[in-house]
Each structure stands twice: as C-alpha cells, then as structure tokens.
Target: Peptide chain release factor 3
Amino acid sequence: MTELQEQIAKRRTFAIISHPDAGKTTLTEKLLLFGGAIQLAGTVKGRKAARHATSDWMALEKERGISVTSSVMQFEYGGAVVNLLDTPGHEDFSEDTYRTLTAVDSALMVIDVAKGVEERTIKLMEVCRLRDTPILTFINKLDREGHDLIEVLDEIEQILKIQCAPITWPIGMGRRFKGVYDRRTGCTHLFSAQHGGRVIEGEVIKGLDNPRLDEVLGEQADELRAELELVEGASHAFDLDAYLAGRQTPVFFGSAINNFGVRELLDAFVQYAPPPRPRMARQRRVTPDEPAFTGFVFKIQANMDPAHRDRIAFVRVCSGSYQKGMRLRHVRIGKTIQVANAITFQADERRHVEEAWPGDIIGLHNHGTIQIGDTFTEGEDLKYEGIPYFAPELFRRIVLKNPLRMKALHKGVIQLAEEGATQSFRPLKNNDLILGAVGMLQFEVAAYRLRSEYGVEAAVEPVSIKTARWIQCTDPRVLERFKEKCFEYLALDGDDHLVYLAPSLVNLSLAEERWPEVRFLATREL
Ligand code: G4P
Model:
C-alpha cells in the first residue's frame, strides 16, 4: 500500500444531521472528548462563547442565541483520522448545511427519543439521499422518558425510508435506564451516572445468560431478554453493504450528556463508515488514490478570527495530497497559485498544515477570487459538480442611507454572495440591488455585516418578488425574444447569470407556458 492509500483508508469525514435541540452539540463535545481533542467536556460551548466575544458579527449570533457558523474538527480515534464537519443548526442557514453535506463521506443522524423524527431531519435526509450518503443513527436522551423504541424505529423506517438495524439496545429508559446491550458482542455496558465530564468505564457483563446480569438488573434482565427477542424479529440484521449504499442505518442508543453509548457509537463509526470514495467531476470520475491533488470549495467563511481579517475557503481534498508550498490550479479562473499557508482546524485551532489527504479539509486564504464550487487541481482542467445553489424564497431591496457608499455596498454584497450567505440580483430595468435568501435571519446578518465590516448603513425593504428561476435557452433567437418580452422581470445574479424574478407563482407558470423552449431552473449547480 502506498502512503496515499494508507492515509485514505484511515480517513472518516462526516457531519451530524439533526433537528435543533436533539443533542448535536453535546454529542460533538463527547466525540471530541474520546478523540482526545479536548480535555474536558464543556469546552465546545466555552469555545463558542470565546468566539462570540472576539468576533463582531458573531455578536449577532449571541444576541439571537443561535449558531450560524460552521467549522471543521479533526481528531484521531482507534487508528482513524476523523474529520467532523459542523453544520449550522438554524434553518435559515440550511443552504450552508446542504453544501457541507456534499463534502462528507457519511453522516450521523441524532434523534431525540422523546421527539422522534423531526422536520429538519427529514429535510437533511433528503439531501443525504441525493448522494446516497451512508447514515449512522444515534437515538439520544435515553435518560429521559421517550416514545416506545420500536415505534421510533418504525417512524424512521416509514418517514425517512431507510431500514433500521439496531446495533445496541438500551436497558430501560428514563429513571430505569441502566445501560446498553451490544448485539454484536453480546456485552452489556452498564451506565453509571458519574459518566459526566470524564471518561469512566462502567461495568461490562459478557453474555446475555450471565447471572451477574440478573444480579444487577433484577427484573429488568428478563425484560431485556424479552425485548431483544422482539427486536430480533421486528428489525433488520446489520448489512454493511446496505449501510454503505444508504439503504440501511445502524442504530445506537444512549445519552450524549451522560456520555453514554457514545463510545460504542464511535467504535462502530470508525469500523464501518466509509473512507473517501470516488467522486464525479464533469469530465470524469476521480478516485481518491490518484496521485494528483484535486479538491473543491464547499464553503467560504468570513472573519472567523478578527485578528486575521480575511475569508477562508474550505476545500475538501478529493484525490492526491496537499503538500505545503505546492502550486495549485484555480480551474475556473485558469490561474496557478502557490499555497504556502493552507490551514486545518484541529479542534478549531488554526494551524498551518504541512500535508493533507483525501477526506481532509484545508482552508485557503481568499482575497476575493475563490467562490463556492471552485475546483483546485495540480493542472488538470477538472470541474467537480453537484454543489447546489437554491432559488431563494425571500427577497429584499437594499436601500442605502448614504448614496456615496454605493461602491462599498456592492463590494460587501458580492462578498456575502460568494460566501453563499445571500444571493444578489440586479434587475435589468433599474439600478436596484435585490438580496435573496432562504431565511429571514440571513437579511439581518447581511445588514449587520454590511455595517460592521464594510461601514455601510443600509436598510432592507420588502419587494414584490415571490421566487426566482435561472434561465437557460439553447436557441439564441428565442432567448433574445424572451429577453425583450420579459425585460421587466429579468435580472442578473452575482455571476451574471440571467434570472427571472417572478412577482407571483401564477406569473411564473404563465411565463413557463408561454415559453416552452426556455428552461426555468429552481437550482443552479455550480
Ligand atoms: P443541538 O446542538 O442539537 O441543538 O442540541 P444540544 O447539544 O445543544 O442539546 C440540546 C439540549 O438537550 C441541551 O439542554 C442539552 O443539555 C440537552 N441534552 C443533550 N443530550 C442529552 C441527553 O442525553 N439527555 C438529556 N436529558 N438532555 C440532553 P439545554 O437545557 O437546552 O441546554 P444546557 O443549558 O443544558 O446547555
């Protein structure tokens, strides 16, 4: 095996998908704890607070009590190098989350046992399904009373359309929660309430018929045996291929806050979750063990650290390796750049990397030339596909308080658009500047950042636009006529693509009927 193949085999790059409050942050913290990336649990939140305190625009997050940033954390566990890509929890930032999901090899779904399958989880699952991303499931908060577990599994199967294969099974729930039984090993791991901040191993009892089980669990031992029989009949046996194909999810139970069931989850994760796999580019399929570096940008983030007033482009390495100082081709603009100072995010600390392998994320300093979806190579003209832009559902006109700041406004709006936070549109018929977003909060963030980072006082006001569609037409004559007739509804987006801004859905469907040769697209793939 070459070093490249060895490094690939070790990599596990994933994201956590869940509905807010299911326990994603808590679980992240515990995973980092096992990974040795942090000393004590609690640091994730502490670190969040520190970030808030040092960054101006994140003060907004603090005011609103939400987390809108996402970061990358790398840690080692059980011989694997794990990259965890955090995703913003707030639904207004879902585009960011969707794009992050294009950069992972698998996902971990967290479900609150008392809530079952929730709306955000359903949406995120749909996105995972686009690429058949393998999904592991953690059912959380077993220390509280929840739904009947068989029903929860049923709900996952019915609503999310994925088979469940319970790997562990909990002993009791709420106050009667005693531990988990591992169906693979036949071992019972007993819960001890002091699991708290430190990693303490509870007692492990081998074998379901072990009398020690009856001794510590009393009547719950027989309950467990009976339940396991039921589970055997009512659920699917674990099938690695079905998991890797995205058809089946192995299920684990536990309590993130008590650090229980998390180790079993992490052990199985490094054992089963896939290393980087081949990926489609427009020109061809690229396998990770090709020696030449390739990667794509899935996210751009501003001012993570006010000491570095720059923007970082997050690049997912897809093949080959990054070596410090190497020259990379920025395919879209056709330029080669020397990358001396890419960074990684080991438990969120900025460090300069010497090398990075497929599955890793590197951060490139971006001075305005890098956009989401850009591909970097060692020279080949290659373009990774499938990173979506979604038609915004909300629109606002930006009104400048001081007209002399127009240039700064444009600069700010363009940069916000490059980060994928908001999209900008310039109608053909006038000099308006329209912002589009998928959530209201994004407008607030935009106005806040324009003020704090670009010194632009701007207000956003409602505008009568209901939805947007990107226009495609292969016949230039039809396109010309279309542009003439629909002039008042047309605009250019940040990349100068033609967009139809419809004042109503009726208007849109009439236009679609009238112009059968014109395609009205709700997503634009980068
Ligand atoms: P999120 O990132 O998915 O939004 O969820 P987060 O981890 O912030 O957890 C949401 C709430 O659920 C938190 O409580 C957290 O302490 C709690 N929680 C997480 N895991 C468990 C668990 O295993 N059992 C129980 N009983 N609760 C759990 P909070 O009151 O909103 O916040 P905090 O004051 O505890 O930080």
